[in-house]
Write a structure and sequence with these properties.
Length: 617
């Protein structure tokens, strides 16, 4: 069964999963940031007046008249002293020196780009960068720097980007960034910072992006971000923050993205984000929030994405999100919300994706989702509804996917999915559904995929699928079905994919499969089938049959002829790419047609029986 699940995901999953609204915009964690980086040399050293540094490669750009010097990975144990004075860009990354003495680059008054990353640097003299008046971009990331003297960047007042991430810095001198008013990117991520001087960033009036992720910050002083009026992106992911006070983020009118995920935030002061008029993306997931006040998100009028997953939120108050009229994605998965009252999602008129997975929701009611006029995807996986409240999705006319798998459902009732004429995908797998009331799906004219795998269905009648005239995929594996009356599938004139594996099917009628003019895929694995119908539609291009009790007597002859004539439709085995984390493993899926009777061929694959066995048929 699990191998089949792989097959299913492989063949079907791609189109199904990707089509969902799944707005991903995860950060490129600690990748080097955008900065103007000249291209590596195509050919070494054109002859110019100044000789190149002895063990380096020089490249003179004839258009820009710029000299680039490449000294990466040369095993330098000290900074070379013969770098040409006219150098514009210097690569000194991944060498072996542990320190930069005073005046190391003194002559390089034209230098604009300096790359010192991925080396063994521990200390940098306060005067190391003296004379670099033109320097705009400096890479010091991925070294072992513990701290930098306060005067380090005093002579480099034109710095625009500075990367200090992935070092061992445990403190920042309060004067370190003084006067750097041209800086627009500062990356201090993945160091050991537990506190920052309150005035550390006060001169960085032009800063657009500040990365402080992966440190040990437990507290943010009220003044810390006060002068950063141009800041667009602030990353505080993975620190030790516990409390967000009301006055920390107030004066960041241009901030568009704020990352606070993976901290230990227990409380957020009411109105803490009230001045953030431009905020579009806000990640508060993986914290310890248990309560959201009804004015927690006040004033976030531009917010598009709000992530609150993996907290301990136990209830939502009406109106909590009322200011978020442009929100498109709200993620509340992996919390402890048990009940949803009315009006909790009030105001979210532009919401497209609502993720409430893994909350063990037990209660919702008609009206809970009212007003979500643009909602396209609702994820309720891992809830525990005994039965779905009547008309709970009423009015969600734009809804195209409902995820209700693993939700303790015991039945589907006539009122559950009323009015959802635009719904395309309905996921009901891994519930305990034994009853589907008559015409429960009658209004789902647009439904393309219905997943009812792993439930307790023991019968299907002509009313069960009534109305599903556009259904393409019907997944019924892992139920208790013994028979499938031909008329049960009559409404499904569009069906191309039918999975009945893992049931208790004893027979399949000729009429049943001929009823479906578009059927291409039929899975009958692991049932109790003895015979197949005398003929199989020519339209079929995959037929799965292993795990049954095939009776290989004369009645099986047409079936054997078909299998031998169309081995690609009934392949003996297929190699599939496994799904999931180890995507590159091949999985073999068998499709044996093992005869159980008569005795003379018992244990043989039908394909391997000799023709003489059928000579008197
Ligand atoms: C640097 O040292 C390593 C190890 O001794 C050696 O393999 C490598 O070739 C050296 N690289 C250069 C450019 O000398
Ligand atoms: C949330 O927690 C669950 C369960 O511990 C985990 O599987 C999931 O990856 C987490 N999600 C995020 C975004 O951290
Ligand atoms: C599933 O439903 C059956 C009745 O149809 C019930 O006996 C059983 O306890 C239910 N199982 C679960 C896990 O809810
Ligand atoms: C099965 O049904 C089709 C369509 O009604 C018919 O053409 C075919 O002869 C039938 N085959 C058998 C063996 O009854
Ligand atoms: C199916 O057949 C292959 C050989 O083709 C055999 O190795 C495998 O054990 C068989 N599987 C089952 C379930 O009979």
């Amino acid at each position: 069964m699990s191998t089949f699940a792989l097959l299913f995901l492989y063949t079907l999953g791609i189109s199904v999963v990707l089509a969902d609204h799944n707005k991903e915009e995860s950060r490129p964690s600690e990748a080097p940031r955008l900065s103007v980086e000249p291209k590596p040399p195509e050919e070494p050293a054109s002859q110019k007046s100044e000789p190149c540094s002895k063990r380096c490669t020089c490249h003179h750009d004839d258009y820009t008249l710029e000299l680039n010097v490449y000294c990466s990975t040369r095993n330098f144990t000290q900074v070379p002293s013969d770098i040409p004075a006219s150098t514009r860009s210097l690569w000194l990354d991944a060498n072996l020196f542990t320190t930069i003495p005073a005046g190391s680059f003194e002559k390089l008054t034209n230098l604009e780009f300096l790359n010192l990353q991925s080396g063994l640097l521990v200390t940098v003299d306060g005067h190391a960068f003296k004379g670099l008046h033109s320097l705009a971009h400096m890479h010091l990331e991925r070294n072992n720097i513990r701290s930098l003297p306060g005067i380090t960047f005093q002579g480099t007042s034109n710095l625009a980007s500075l990367s200090l991430n992935n070092n061992q810095m445990s403190r920042i001198d309060e004067k370190l960034f003084a006067g750097l008013s041209h800086m627009w990117l500062l990356n201090l991520g993945w160091n050991l910072l537990s506190v920052l001087p309150e005035t550390a960033f006060q001169d960085l009036h032009g800063l657009r992006e500040l990365v402080l992720a992966g440190n040990r910050l437990a507290y943010l002083q009220p003044q810390l971000f006060q002068g950063l009026t141009e800041l667009k992106e602030l990353d505080l992911t993975g620190n030790y923050l516990k409390v967000i006070k009301a006055n920390v983020f107030l004066k960041l009118p241009k901030l568009q993205k704020l990352y606070l995920a993976q901290n230990q935030i227990v409380t957020v002061a009411p109105r803490a984000f009230v001045g953030m008029k431009s905020l579009r993306w806000f990640d508060l997931s993986r914290n310890r929030l248990s309560i959201l006040h009804d004015d927690t998100f006040l004033g976030l009028h531009s917010l598009h994405v709000l992530r609150l997953s993996n907290n301990s939120i136990s209830s939502l108050r009406p109106g909590t999100f009322r200011d978020l009229q442009y929100l498109e994605e709200l993620c509340l998965s992996h919390n402890q919300i048990r009940a949803l009252g009315v009006r909790v999602f009030e105001g979210l008129g532009h919401l497209e994706v609502l993720n409430l997975e893994h909350n063990r929701l037990q209660e919702a009611r008609m009206g809970t989702f009212m007003g979500l006029n643009h909602l396209a995807v609702i994820k309720l996986t891992g809830s525990c509804f005994q039965s779905l409240p009547d008309q709970v999705f009423k009015g969600l006319s734009k809804l195209h996917s409902i995820h209700l798998d693993r939700s303790c459902l015991a039945k589907v009732s006539t009122q559950s999915f009323i009015g959802l004429t635009g719904l395309r995908r309905l996921f009901l797998q891994h519930n305990n559904i034994s009853v589907v009331e008559r015409q429960s799906f009658v209004e789902l004219q647009g439904l393309q995929q219905l997943d009812l795998r792993f439930n307790q269905l023991s019968s299907i009648t002509s009313h069960t699928f009534y109305g599903l005239r556009n259904l393409d995929y019907l997944l019924l594996s892992g139920n208790l079905l013994r028979h499938l009356p031909a008329e049960a599938l009559l409404p499904l004139q569009h069906l191309s994919w039918l999975d009945l594996s893992g049931n208790k099917m004893e027979s399949i009628l000729n009429a049943t499969i001929y009823m479906l003019p578009r059927l291409r895929y039929l899975n009958l694995k692991d049932n109790a089938l003895i015979n197949l119908p005398g003929s199989i539609p020519e339209t079929l291009d995959q037929l799965w049959l292993s795990g049954n009790n095939w009776k290989c007597d004369c009645s099986a002859k047409p079936f054997r002829d078909f299998v031998l004539r169309k081995p690609h439709v009934v392949p003996l085995q297929v190699e599939m790419l496994g799904d999931g984390d180890d995507t590159h493993t091949l999985v073999t899926i068998y499709n044996n047609i093992t005869c159980t009777s008569p005795l003379s061929v018992s244990g043989l694959d039908l394909r391997n029986t000799v023709s003489e066995h059928f000579q008197y048929c």
